[in-house]
Design goal:
Among the domains are: about 55-115, no CATH class; about 120-175, no CATH class; about 185-230, no CATH class. The longest helix has 17 residues, at about 75-90. The protein is mainly α. Helices cover about 60% and strands about 0% of the residues. α11 (about 195-210) runs antiparallel to α12. The relative contact order is 0.07.
Length: about 240
Amino acid sequence: MSAQSKAPSSQLPENDAFFQEARGPDAEPVPGGGPKKKDDKANKRRKPRKLRKLSADYFRRAALYYLERHNGSQHSLRQVLRRRVMRAEREGQELDREEVEAWIETVIKELVAQGFLDDARFALTRARSLYDRGQSTVAIRMKLRAKGVAPDLIDEALERLREEQNHESEADMALDAARAYARKRGLGWHRLDPQVRAERAQKDLAALARRGFGYQVARQALEEGLDEGERLDDLPDDWE
């Protein structure tokens, strides 16, 4: 083997034509060989490995991996595992859909029995998180339904949350959440400049509406810190 072939790659001579094309005519020479391309991350990306052959054991391991990282519901986990099935089929695995679905349901039942998967716990944890972020009880119900949580478990979670927050009713809880959201976002009476407050009144009201708050709750949260003469008169009397 020649001395040149034994030299480390950083000392090998460049192929000038190749690297000049890669760098472009105005690029500065790069010490130690080839140029650093603009998008190093893109160059390092690798094609995702193909899934292993699906089996009941594969789904069990995949489910535990998911639950280690996410507080999921049965519905969420089922959707995650079904996406693995669709990916496996795209990669050419021949699958018996009935058999695969039976594996998924068996794994879910086992995880429920072992306490790894608990929709009641998920509903309460998720409700707390959404409430702390200023979501209305209406929005919380919608988001939990979208995760496949049963209506009775949603009711239980909101009742437990109401007790934790020491509120007499869900209406009181909704007003407290609207106040918190208005405070965090600096909406309504939290805007110190009266002109800005008046100009932004409609948009502030709409921001609360998008989070599922009723009109009276939203308006109270925006106005309750104002004197009588400073009320937001440009607001409508109700939702259109």
